[in-house]
Amino acid sequence: MSSAAPHRHDVEPLTTSTQWASLYDEVLSRSFPGPELEDRSSLLAALDQGSLHALGVSTPAGHVRAGVMYLVRGPVALILYLAAAPEFRGTGVGGALLEEAIAHARTVPGLQYVLAEVEHPDHHIASEAYGDPSARVRFYARHGMRVLAAPYFQPAIGPGAPRVPALLLTTLWVDDTAVEVRDEAGRPTAVSAPALRGFLTDYLADAEGTLPTDAAFARLLAAFDGAAIELVGPEAISTVPVGTLDAETSWSAPEDSVTLVADAILFDQDGTLISSIEATDHAWAAWAREFGPRAGFDPESVHVGHGQPALTSVRRHVPAELETEALDRINELELSEVAGIAPLPGVCRLLSALPPDRWTVVTSANRALSDVRLAAAGIDVPPTRVTIEDVERGKPAPDPFLLGAERLGFDPSECLVIEDAVAGIRAGIAAGCLTVAVGAAHRDAPGLADLSVPDIASLVVARRPDGRLAVSVR
């Protein structure tokens, strides 16, 4: 695949299901956090129906490496997604795509506005996976961006999904017929509001499955009540009202939707962040074959207490005089066994969206074993990690999570524990933390945790304007 910068003539309409799937799988899913990206089947269906339009840049083999997707409704076009695959960024393709999308949309009869949603850089953090909001604002500013003075948020992508607060609703092109006021340089400083109000009403109702009636939506529409709405330049975005979802302007999700809000997240390691069952079972099976004849137990009867310290399982099977030797041996076996260790679904996406000072690992493994397994899974070791050596009592005692909260600098009651073991869920509850059960705990202890999902891939995390983390189900 060539890494040369694409030129304007490389941008072409994407018109086949194969191209759309490539755009979603190879570009969009790698560029947008879960709450900001509609599910694959819905987007492909909308493209097939013609309600969405897509342009892209492809390799000779047909793989889409960058693309833009927009919708047109009445006099308004909205850029929904603009992204390049990570290895294609910085080549100039984004500007080519955006200019071509604006030109393409302007051919629609009666079009008056081309809009885009941009994260407010004062309220969203930069990440390696999803980019830098400040750089994104600078990018759009180079292409004529002006900001509507409205408290905008991205609507929920379906009933029960979370909204994304603190976005800027911007104009990239406005037809002369919609401009109400211009400054001395000829730049629009106010545009006609009624058509924009009608567009937003329809757009949010379609996205969320029903017409919203909450205070945040009412506050947004109120900005468009008059004949015109103010436009400001990117240098004045601090004057734009922020689309927050705080207590006074909150959105009431359906009753079956649960959102947990915390200052930090404490992750268990094995079975939560990484898959290590194969490696663990191989090591314990070898250990049982060695110590079963000596300690008088059937090697086939060994039950490993996943989520608990190795010493707990060792003591369950061997007499005191063999305890030290048996513990040393299982530690040795587990360190040598890395078969099948990998990050579990959704883990890399979720961790990349979190500020590094807002999460850590709290594991029943010892430090050496944790180092080996996290490295095998490609996950960096957080400096605040807690291992079994750090506490006198392991899970289900609360000590590990109490220490994890302390190391991050937050009260345990403001922390969220994500665990796959019932013992870990009980430890989190005892520590006073909010809890999310995944994996085995989701299966074995329904109703024990505050939220229960099959795996981390089922979760999305959004950072609120106040810096706290909102965790909900995808």
What this model shows, in words?
There is one protein chain. Helix content is 32%, strand content 22%. By secondary structure, the protein is of the alpha+beta class. The chain has 3 domains: 8-251, Aminopeptidase, CATH 3.40.630.30; 261-274 and 341-473, Rossmann fold, CATH 3.40.50.1000; 277-336, no CATH class.
Distance, first to last CA: 34 Å
CATH class of the largest domain, please?
Alpha Beta
CATH architecture of the largest domain: 3-Layer(aba) Sandwich
Largest beta sheet, briefly? 11 strands, mixed
Examine the coordinates and then state which fold CATH places here, giving the name of the CATH topology of the largest domain: Aminopeptidase
Give unreliable regions as ranges.
1-9, 246-257
Number of helices: 14
Shape: elongated
* Computed structural class: alpha+beta
Average pLDDT: 85
CATH superfamily of the largest domain: Gcn5-related N-acetyltransferase (GNAT)
